[in-house]
Amino acid sequence: MNGSAAGADVCVCFPAAGGGGATLALLRDTAARRGMTVLALSNAESVADVDSGRWKDRAVQEVRQAVAHMSGRRVVLAGHSMGGLSAICLHAALGTRMSVPTGVLVINTPCPDPSGRIPTMSHLPDREIAQVLAHDGFPQELLDDEDMLSEIAHGLRRDAVVADRLAEVIGSADHLDQLHVLSGRDDRFIPPERCAAWRHRVAEEFHLTITPGGHALDATRTAAVERAFDGLLAATPQREVTA
Questions:
Q1: Distance CA 160, CA 129 (A)
Q2: What is the pairing mode between strands 10-14 and 202-211?
Q3: Nearest residue to 25 via CA among 148, 86, 140, 107
Q4: Which of 188, 159, 189 is nearest to 17 (CA)?
Q5: Coil, helix or strand for 172?
Q6: Residue 86 to residue 43: CA distance in whole angstroms
Q7: How far, in Å, CA of 16 to CA of 25, rounded?
Q8: Nearest to 17 by CA among 211, 218, 131, 161
Q9: Segment 39-70, tens digit of pLDDT
Q10: Which of 90, 120, 171, 196 could form a disulfide with 112 if both were Cys (CB 3.0 to 4.6 A apart)?
């Protein structure tokens, strides 16, 4: 966590399946440049972690502590792919437990269909996962190493099972008040139409930005991320903080 000014906004960032990556770094850097306190949280570790409420309780507590420590005026929840599902799930929990204005930005996060399903890697074999990763620029030499690919694919499938459960939870939840979505036009795994479908789950303001790029966005897409981020900040009021 970084940031030092009292009354700073708090940005809570969640990664895609597998954790980390250029998109998460881009989100964190964008928030930091705006003087926000950046809090990087993990996605739930298992379906049991979701269903028991343990993950949600931990996340709420960490956000509460960050907001209290910084006298935070508002909270931005931002996530990439699976991390976007985490951000949306946490948004509902914060709404019932905190009084700080909260907005959500998701990047290449699929909207669950009416049955609560999303495009998922949970049942993909190693080679199909390799094809998805190769299209997104993952180093080919790692994908050609069968042992390395097996390890990568196993981790992604494990996370994808949790993402599937988060999608089911969201699919049965009430509509969001507002949501900002950024979608990579060239993302074959989560195409823009799966991101645009969020408009059916948003009761008030829905903002969709489509930018060139694949599933992972790197520094070349900084301007698009900044525009989406600034649009969210403009739409999310600040809480007045007394001295």
A1: 12
A2: unpaired
A3: 107
A4: 159
A5: coil
A6: 6
A7: 11
A8: 161
A9: 999 999 999 999 999 999 999 999 999 998 88
A10: 171
- How far is 187 from 131, CA to CA, in rounded Å? 12
- Token pair 């897409």: residue: 221
Per-residue pLDDT at 218:
87
Q: Which H or E run contains 193?
A: helix 192-196
* Phi, psi dihedral angles at 156 (to 5 degrees): -70, -40
**Scanning the structure block, which residue is given the tokens 């009761």?**
203
Number of H helices, E strands in the chain: 9, 6
Please determine, for residue 157, whether its predicted confidence score (pLDDT) is greater than 70. yes
Q: Phi, psi (5° rounding) for residue 176?
A: -75, 155
Render pLDDT for 74-131 as a digit per residue (tens, 0 to 9).
Answer: 999 999 999 999 999 999 888 777 778 899 999 999 999 988 999 999 999 999 999 9
* Both structure tokens of 66: 């960050």
Phi, psi of 94 (to 5 degrees): -65, -35
Residue among 214, 193, 195, 218 at smallest CA distance from 88: 195
Largest pairwise CA distance in the chain: 59
CB-hemisphere CA count at 13 Å for 60?
A: 16
pLDDT tens digits for 184-221?
A: 999 989 999 999 999 999 999 999 999 999 999 989 99
Binning pLDDT at 50, 70 and 90, where does residue 242 land?
A: low
Residue 240 DSSP class: P
